[in-house]
Amino acid sequence: MSNAIVKLAIIGGGVSGLSLAYYLQRRVVQASGPGTALDITLFERKASLGGNAETVVVDLGVRRHASGEDRRYLRWADLGVNDVNLATYRRLEAIMGEIDYLDHLKPLQDTESYFTRDGRLSLTDDTYLHRGVSDPAFALDAADHGRLAPLIRVVHRAALDLLDSITPAYTVAAYFDDCEARPREMLETAAHELDVDIDWQDPELPRRLASVRTLIYYPRIAAMYFTDDRGPGEMPLASPFEYYRVQEGGGEPRRRYFDYGAQGWLDALAAYLVAPERSGPRVTIRRHAEVGVRLEPERAVVHDEHGWSAAFDLAIVATHADDAHRLVSLSDRLAPIRERLDAILGAVRYTRSYAVCHTASGRLPPNKNVWRTYNIEIRDPGDTRFPYRIDYLTNLHQNDPANPDYDEAGLPQYFVSLVDDLNRIPRQEMLDKVLDPGRVPEAMRGRLPDATRTQMAEGLHDSGYRHELPTPDEALQRKAWTYFKHNVLDAACLQAQRDIDAYNAETAMAWREGKGACPLLFAGGWTRGAGLQEQCLEQSERLVGWLLGSE
Fold this sequence. Notes:
The chain is α/β, with parallel strands linked by helices and 551 residues long. The protein has 17 helices and 21 strands.
């Protein structure tokens, strides 16, 4: 990188955009010292940072005390990003350590329930339950005379062991078909690794493997945000199991929620980047900045609909692929690159869902004793459309049993559900956002994310992708819900991820060496794995390494 001032634009203020600025700022200082002339401007369409992160405050009623000092019982909830696994999120842990945010991560109650709506079947996975009651009548460990849980662990390990040797054409359905047809061949190595004794001649083994598929993995995969709407069986095996390796792996997971909301850590990262005393390149963050990028050889022009524009030496688009496709235009002199990028970005499909905070207990298992942090419906095999359905018991996700103030409050319990249709939650059971800062105690208000406090002070803000919807009536606007999207992690998307990696590496090297490259690179959740925060950080770190020549 030359000594001239290099102007760099980052489009998108989610974890990808912010982490790009972080790694650029940090690595440029390490490589060249504090005087390096790089100027970074980050553009975010919304008032708030955080991509799919959104934190709301809701009112659950009046909490009564023996002293007579009754007051409103307010809680917060994350409608999007809501937890991480510190056993594998090493980059996130390092950044949070540097910006002094790790104390804001708290242990959650890591339990799961699998259930049918009619109540005929309920299973609870309480492997990591450290405080509470596990009923053996529903415990997954006791199911099928204790034979099902060890088999699940073996199936899981065998799938993880395959990740480095399979192609995207190898689907979840094909894997389970192979396990049922050739169980010993598929599973013996994993059983040995886990010291699990399996009777390979047991005539019940194929039936038991079918149960692992239909009762556990198909429901779990169908509850994932990146699942193909054709059903979990059509997914490449690598898609869910790479997610498991990051989100639930690392030995015993260290699952953590963000105390007072996930948006808070991104606010903290943004504040760290723009602090006047920060060494290295200056970072400017522009919010309410819905911009496009026009690419010409050797420069990128960022512009908005009001006629403003500015030229940059390099632009990195850290948005969803479909948004990138819409907001980026390339001049005719870059036609071959335009065709290449059109093919990559156009290969990525999307699903859209609603996240709703509510008190509709009918969404949960019929038997309240099997309610868990994550509640996953076992559905009929033909029910594959709109797969993303999961219900969080927020009281457990925020680990109320470890917090006497909350635990002693008792009811009501409240939930966050991911659904395909907003009408699946009765309007009267949707919770309202608290928008009056005067109703929030000072101690709570001071710990909430900046975006949440700002919305209280200024009124309703755009969140998620609600701008893609018709404007709802005012009463519905005030409810605690959002509309978000995520790329389908199918075989075409996995190929697009490989293709964008190749494009990024080639372009960054050519740009660094001054060979007249198209000044455009891509980041964002769609570019790596399932778009978990750790994977976004990994992609940002690699991209910066390519730019600075250290990767």
